């Protein structure tokens, strides 16, 4: 098949023979990090003499940042600091996947290490028990860059029959979705659902509910698993927010938010307060809702295809054309959560969740004085 | 190649992932009928426990503006679990959940919303299960049983029947019905896989056979009592689409996929009550047929999703169909609207077969119409509002 990679055509039965070999007491640990683009994921593996039982047992490591757009060649060593451990669904128990933060040579956070400041903010708002759920949309492409299973020199029939669909003429690439779901469950990633999306070859999975910093951790690892599963099948997952121009949906990362107060009786008032604060910081949020300061989202947030316009802030019950949607059930129950529909599919979840936490739950004057203190 | 790109992805790789243990998590796939009244949709959620009965399953919601069921400005719709089955694709402990769709949740309204309710009906044109269930409850003690014979055609992704020459036709009909051999039976793998998947899932599949047109097949679901008929048939259809998706081909329920001297596809519906199944039951069968004879247009409207337009292409009076404009009944007569099987005619009890429903009918709509006319003795063009 022209649009799958050569690697995927290698004999998997041969591979399985090797993967079945016992490994004594040794443990393979794969370190994962975000590179200098803020979107790309990198990984390398080392052997440990025994299975680590917690993140504290996993040593710091380092890598060549000049090969990942993260440093100059003359001073290229960067640090990998393990922050969260998962089971490895590719090489299986006892092996691990370890998500890492990246520090520069001087032990300060690397430019695309948004986790560091996100974590600080999440610590400050701990008492709110801030929960998130993020809906990751993505598109499957062949190795030729064209959406997977689309006619090679054209387009499928217009959108309408594909959302949540079944059937070979509607659902393209379900194997990837099924395998990714199982891989996440095995690894311990908090995946809570999947569905086919409006554009053919486009899918969505949801991760959550996660409290605080966990949201970013689980979503980044879920993305790593997605890319790795696609690699095995020989096709590509893209998080580009508008992969095909014209009358085709874009890809977002709708972010659902709640605090303990919002989840309790009469919580709707706290939801409305939070939305009110968000309405005043629209531009600042748009700037961090994709890795290019809003430029990626400009291609996606047009006001059509179930998006809000990038220039205006709006909110509404059950309204998928608004920036913020309050689910109908929440409007009825007068408690629950709200959905920020603005983040792009390729957003950094640490940057998104941090912005929401800051705007809604941190007093700006407090923030200013904290910044002055640390300066 | 007439199969999809997805079907060419490595199934060895897929197998490795699908064998991964999932701890105590359970995947529940919610299934519903979309705004076309024919299309099926699905999405999955993770549960922390294995549901033992339908009551264990939470309600859910979805974006109706993407399924021809709502506008974007007011698009949340509810999924109400109605019937649960084992998942033959992801296997135990995972589940398939057939759902009803509602525009908003009836159970959670407050007093101030009652006025709004009178103005807007929360049921949808394509959620026929609600009224079917109501009507089935009314005749519970008569134990109505159904068996539906679902015909379908396998197509390649190019829309041409699977196995047919790419720019032409196979030899004329004759050798294909219940045939065996690569020159007679096209796509048996799908039939075999579907049968096994239905048995695993708990769907009441009772048989299969190759049909008169090559690449056309039939499976039968039943006997099912009351609302179960619609539930089991919709899930059997979902499983068929899903199996075909895995093989990279398409199942079509179009009632006349190829015009000309090729059979159409129906969903013959067999029906009986306790009285009909007992000694002397033939009398009750004949009474029902007489009532059906007086209400032909109402049934034709209920027997396909386009009020009879789809069946107009199929019910021509030829190819073992009755003519759409006329009602007829007869023992062992496949050209009649209603056929009484010869054995029933001899034993003077049993069931009868309504041959009018099209392959893409809504089984809730069909079974409801039969109950209304035969057991509730309704007359006239419109169903009674109880």
From TrEMBL, chain A:
Q: Which residues form the GS catalytic domain?
A: 114-375
A Pfam family? Gln-synt_C
> Would you tell me the Gene Ontology cellular component terms?
cytoplasm
- Give the keywords, sorted: ATP-binding, Cytoplasm, Ligase, Nucleotide-binding
UniProt domain GS beta-grasp: residue ranges: 27-107
From which source organism is this entry? Answer: Xiphophorus couchianus (Monterrey platyfish)
- Tree of life domain: Eukaryota
Q: Does the keyword Nucleotidyltransferase apply?
A: no
The record, for SUPFAM superfamilies, names:
Glutamine synthetase, N-terminal domain, Glutamine synthetase/guanido kinase
| PROSITE patterns the UniProt entry points to | GLNA_1, GLNA_ATP, GS_BETA_GRASP, GS_CATALYTIC
Q: What are the recorded GO MF terms, alphabetically?
A: ATP binding; glutamine synthetase activity
| Record's protein name | Glutamine synthetase
Give the GO biological process terms: glutamine biosynthetic process
- Tell me the compartments it is located in: Cytoplasm
Q: Which family does it belong to?
A: Belongs to the glutamine synthetase family.
UniProtKB/TrEMBL annotation, chain B:
Protein's recorded name = Glutamine synthetase
The family this protein is said to belong to: Belongs to the glutamine synthetase family.
**What is the main EC category here?**
ligase
What does the record give as the reaction this protein catalyses?
L-glutamate + NH4(+) + ATP = L-glutamine + ADP + phosphate + H(+)
Keyword list, A-Z: ATP-binding, Cytoplasm, Ligase, Magnesium, Manganese, Metal-binding, Mitochondrion, Nucleotide-binding
Biological process GO annotation list? glutamine biosynthetic process; inner ear receptor cell development
Q: Which SMART domains match?
A: Gln-synt_C
The organism of origin for this protein? Xiphophorus couchianus (Monterrey platyfish)
Q: Where does this polypeptide localize?
A: Cytoplasm; Mitochondrion
Spell out the molecular function terms from Gene Ontology: ATP binding; glutamine synthetase activity; metal ion binding
Q: Where is this chain primarily localised?
A: cytoplasm
Q: Which cofactors are reported in the record for this sequence?
A: Mn(2+); Mg(2+)
Q: What InterPro entries has UniProt attached to this entry? A: Gln_synt_N, Gln_synt_N_sf, Gln_synth/guanido_kin_cat_dom, Gln_synth_cat_dom, Gln_synth_gly_rich_site, Gln_synth_N_conserv_site, Glutamine_Synthetase
Q: Which GO terms describe its cellular component?
A: mitochondrion
EC number(s) for this protein? 6.3.1.2
Give every GS catalytic domain span.
128-386
Concerning SUPFAM superfamilies, the annotation shows:
Glutamine synthetase, N-terminal domain, Glutamine synthetase/guanido kinase
Check the record and name the Pfam families matching this protein. Answer: Gln-synt_C (PF00120), Gln-synt_N (PF03951)
Boundaries of each GS beta-grasp domain copy?
24-106
- Superkingdom classification of source: Eukaryota
């Amino acid at each position: 098949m022209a649009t799958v990679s050569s690697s995927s055509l290698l004999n998997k039965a041969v591979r399985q023979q090797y993967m079945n070999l016992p490994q004594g007491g040794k443990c393979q640990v794969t370190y994962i990090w975000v590179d200098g683009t803020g979107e790309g994921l990198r990984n390398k593996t080392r052997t440990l003499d025994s299975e680590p039982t917690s993140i504290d047992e996993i040593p710091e490591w380092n890598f060549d940042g000049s090969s990942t757009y993260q440093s100059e060649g003359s001073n290229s060593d960067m640090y990998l600091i393990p922050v969260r451990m998962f089971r490895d669904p590719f090489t299986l128990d006892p092996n691990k996947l370890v998500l890492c933060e990246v520090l520069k040579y001087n032990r300060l956070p690397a430019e695309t290490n948004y986790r560091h400041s996100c974590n600080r903010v999440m610590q400050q708002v701990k008492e709110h028990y801030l929960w998130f759920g993020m809906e990751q949309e993505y598109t499957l492409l062949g190795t030729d860059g064209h959406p997977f299973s689309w006619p090679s020199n054209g387009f499928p029939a217009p959108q309408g029959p594909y959302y949540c669909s079944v059937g070979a003429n509607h659902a393209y690439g379900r194997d990837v979705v099924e395998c990714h779901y199982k891989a996440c469950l095995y690894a311990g990633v908090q995946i809570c659902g999947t569905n086919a999306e409006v554009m053919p070859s486009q899918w969505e999975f949801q991760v959550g509910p996660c409290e605080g910093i966990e949201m970013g951790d689980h979503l980044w690892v879920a993305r790593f698993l997605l890319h790795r599963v696609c690699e095995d099948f020989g096709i590509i997952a893209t998080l580009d927010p508008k992969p095909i121009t014209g009358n085709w949906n874009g890809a977002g990362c709708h972010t659902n938010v709640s605090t303990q107060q919002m989840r309790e009786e009469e919580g709707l008032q706290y939801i409305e307060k939070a939305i009110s604060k968000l309405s005043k910081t629209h531009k600042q949020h748009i700037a961090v809702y994709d890795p290019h300061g809003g430029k990626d989202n400009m291609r996606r947030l047009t006001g059509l295809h179930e998006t809000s316009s990038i220039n205006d802030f709006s909110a509404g019950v059950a309204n998928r054309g608004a920036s913020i949607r309050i689910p109908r059930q929440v409007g009825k129950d007068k408690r629950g959560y709200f959905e920020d529909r603005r983040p792009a599919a390729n957003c950094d979840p640490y940057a998104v969740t941090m912005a929401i936490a800051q705007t809604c739950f941190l007093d700006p004057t407090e923030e200013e004085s904290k910044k002055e203190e640390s300066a | 190649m007439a199969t999809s790109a997805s079907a060419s992805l490595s199934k060895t790789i897929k197998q490795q992932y699908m064998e991964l243990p999932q701890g105590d998590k359970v995947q529940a796939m919610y299934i519903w009928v979309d705004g076309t009244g024919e299309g099926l949709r699905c999405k999955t959620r993770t549960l922390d426990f294995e549901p033992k009965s339908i009551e264990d399953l939470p309600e859910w919601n979805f974006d109706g503006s993407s399924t021809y069921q709502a506008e974007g400005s007011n698009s949340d719709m509810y999924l109400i679990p109605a019937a649960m089955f084992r998942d033959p694709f992801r296997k135990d402990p995972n589940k398939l959940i057939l759902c009803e769709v509602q525009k908003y949740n009836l159970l959670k309204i407050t007093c101030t919303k009652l006025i709004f309710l009178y103005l807007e009906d929360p049921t949808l044109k394509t959620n026929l299960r609600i009224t079917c269930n109501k009507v089935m409850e009314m005749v519970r003690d008569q134990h109505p049983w159904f068996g539906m014979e679902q015909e379908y055609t396998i197509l390649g992704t190019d829309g041409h029947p699977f196995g047919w020459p790419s720019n032409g036709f196979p030899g004329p009909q004759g050798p294909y019905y219940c045939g065996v051999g690569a020159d007679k039976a096209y796509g048996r793998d799908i039939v075999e896989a579907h049968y096994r998947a239905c048995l695993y899932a708990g769907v009441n599949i009772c048989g299969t056979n190759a049909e008169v047109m090559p690449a056309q097949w039939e499976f039968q679901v039943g006997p099912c009592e009351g609302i179960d008929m619609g539930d089991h048939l919709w899930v059997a259809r979902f499983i068929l689409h899903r199996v075909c998706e895995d093989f990279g081909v398409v199942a079509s329920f179009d009632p006349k996929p190829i015009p000309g001297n090729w059979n159409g596809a129906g969903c013959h519906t067999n029906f009986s009550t306790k009285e009909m199944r007992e000694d002397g039951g033939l009398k009750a069968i004949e009474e029902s047929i007489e009532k059906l004879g007086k209400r032909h247009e109402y049934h034709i409207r209920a027997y396909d999703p386009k009020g009879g337009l789809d069946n107009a292409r199929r019910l021509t009076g030829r190819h073992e169909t009755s003519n759409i404009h006329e009602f007829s009944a007869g023992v062992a007569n496949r050209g009649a609207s209603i056929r009484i099987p010869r054995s029933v005619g001899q034993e003077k009890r049993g069931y009868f077969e309504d041959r009018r429903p099209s392959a893409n009918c809504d089984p809730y709509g069909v079974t409801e119409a039969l109950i209304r006319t035969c057991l509730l003795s309704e007359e006239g063009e419109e169903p009674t509002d109880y």
